[in-house]
Amino acid sequence: MITSVFRRPLRWRLLLPAAALLSTLPAAAEPPVAVVETQEGFPPLGTEVMVPDLEALADKATREAAQAAAWAQVRRRYREAPTGPSVDTPSRPSIPAIALRPAEPIEPPPATSLKIMLDGYPSPRHAALFVARERGLFASRGLEVTLATPADPDVPSKLLAASRIDLAVARQPLLHLQVDRGLPLVRVASLIAMPLSALVVPEDGAIETPGQLAGSRIGHADVDSRDVLLAALLHGAAIRDDEIETEALHFRLDDALREGRVDGVIGAMRHLLPRQLADVGLATRVLRIEDLGIPLHDGLVLLANRDHLAPQRDAIRRLVAAIEEATAWIANHPDEAWSLIAKTEPALDTAVNREAWEMVRSRLNLSPAALDQGRYRRFEEYLFEAGLIRERHPASRLAIDLGASPR
Length: 407
Known about the structure:
By secondary structure, the protein is of the alpha/beta class.
């Protein structure tokens, strides 16, 4: 017998009327087949009738209606939502769009260009600039730095004042002189914090002190060597300008001394010229300018044009930070630093420069942005008292610290 999935009580209720009908017939008579067959609406006896469970069907219909309503709500939200391959909807999560061509390469922001002119031929004293360039310290700060060499050491400050270059390497005495002459120059960093200049004379000559300069012929490397350093020595020794002769030698100091055309040179680099002359058999005497009464000052500074400083301030601040990092690396890795400099500037890899390297690197300024305003005031006062400048200029006019917080 097939078991019905429908409820049994209803089946018994349907069989009871049939049993009652049969009870009215004679007991001996067999129920005629025709009667059984002709009873419309009733199945034969013994037949299980499958009656639907109306309550279950009602529950199922309710669930299906609720589900249909939920999906209708989803479809409505789907139709009302924005379309496109990047839109994430409840029924269609976003997927990447098909690329029809390669993506455009991501370009770095444009680098800020800065042109720096050195104060002469490349030298170990420019080490921080070379190392910062070669180690990518400028590039990592968004700078494209060009280092240029002048044909004349007196040219860089003039080009800077005319805005032909962005920065110039110079000596602190030149800054005081040019500011007094009206040029819009200002110090933004100090590369070397001690003087490197000297008065160099032949060892067998008559000059041993500034007081013996009268009647001599002195060559000079640049304008500040003549108009500041030599003039200060003459003033201290009470020697008039017309009591000596001067000659502009620019980059040919060694030739002039070796050939005997001059009795001495002022502004010579003390770490280079004496050794160069010794190699050709000429012994010299080195008179350090700070030992001759000239106040201590920065040996090498970086100058900017004050009139155009505002738009360049951030770029120059990044430049000075790169120089500071390079200087610290040189102090920690002096041998590697020299190898790097010699590789990038092969002309510097000479016996003279290798011998001078230890002295020069020990004078590199580890805090190039830092400013000693007292040093600039003292030097300005010294020049004014000596009659070498026309008026006193405040330290803030001569030098600034770009890293200092504004007051």
